[in-house]
Amino acid sequence: MERSGSNTLGASLARLQHSAGITGTRSAKCSTHGDYIATVLRDDQLSGCPACSFERQAQQEAAERSEQQRQAVAARLERQLGQALIPLRFKGKTFENYRAVTPAQRVALDTCRAYAENFPEAKAAGRCLMLLGHVGNGKTHLAAAIAARVVEQHRCNVLYTTVSRVCQQVKSSYGKEATQSEREALEIFRAPELLILDEVGASYGTDFERMVMFEVVNARYEEMKPTIVISNLFAQGLANALGDRTVDRLREGDGVVVLFNWVSARRELPDE
Questions:
Q1: CA dihedral in degrees (243, 210, 134, 267; nearest 10)?
Q2: pTM over 0.70
Q3: What is the pLDDT of residue 220?
């Protein structure tokens, strides 16, 4: 009875192999792995080396894992860039597409690029950057380029905002219907590894505005966190808008000032 069962199983296996086009086995040799037993197919073709097949499968799986990791990194970077709140108009602004023709423009570009590429050093020193000067000269363009490079190259979190938004956030913490305290509102701007403050001095600097800016800049200064300030003002105007104490905090740790003092590209456009 046992022999009969074995014969039946063998016959079933033979039929299965035949239906799959397998006619037998034969010794074969792989140039890489040496001798192996090959399966002979109906057209007298031999199956490939199983060791080679295993290696190809392992390589394919490794490539798939690498692609999955690449996509995960790209998705994380996309989330971080989205969380940076860079305005839509300035997304995609890079150092490469910044128009630098004059020596002053090239200095601005090179200084901002160096700040971004060496951001770990700036971060360790709490070194701030001030982009000051005429409207329309690409200050926000370069700040957005710095943000993208810092996120992509150094995996640091960045937040872009304006002075008016900071003040509105703090004001919203006052009153009975407030959903957060003043401390929690300020924490939003203290937390990022790099904060970009735009439109500094765009409106007349009130005592409240100067107080809020000092609280933000000073909190970051105490924790050695870099801040980038963007303003259409120059040094004295910036001091008037922010107050001397705040500007002193920005300058400490070898704070960098970049002057955009050439004629605005927007003003050079002919009237239509």
A1: -150
A2: yes
A3: 97
